[in-house]
Design brief:
By secondary structure, this protein is of the alpha+beta class. The protein is built from 4 helices and 4 strands, in the order H-E-E-E-H-E-H-H.
Length: 118
């Protein structure tokens, strides 16, 4: 199994264990919108979009645009690499705990990941 799929399975299990709603999105085949992040989740009323990448993966321009649009509309947009899994888990726990300080620190990490490719 590939690194991105392994990451996806870990993230889905974590979200499920925390009581978050999520759906795996596939933007291919001509009937769905391309560029939408891999996982769309709602945790304690907070919308979180997660674009999963293997260690050497790179987001497309379309994926970056969608992440940017989600941030602009008030959602959380996460470009998640395996090295940031723990930060992601802390983000979800901070959402649950309604801890704005930890949420802000985690969001900054993911904003920096996105900026690396813009």
């Amino acid at each position: 199994m590939g690194e991105e799929k392994n990451l996806e399975n870990v993230v889905k299990a974590f979200l499920k264990a925390r009581g978050c709603w999520y759906v795996k999105y596939w933007g291919g085949g001509g009937y769905t919108r391309k560029g939408v992040p891999d996982l769309l989740a709602c945790c304690k009323g907070v919308f979180v979009a997660i674009e999963l990448k293997a260690t050497r993966g790179r987001p497309s321009a379309l994926q970056l645009r969608e992440l940017h649009r989600i941030r602009e509309s008030g959602g959380l947009a996460v470009l998640l690499y395996p090295k940031d899994l723990e930060v992601f888990q802390h983000l979800i726990m901070a959402i649950e705990d309604k801890d704005p300080h930890i949420m802000e620190l985690c969001v900054r990490v993911f904003e920096e990941r996105i900026k690396e490719y813009e």
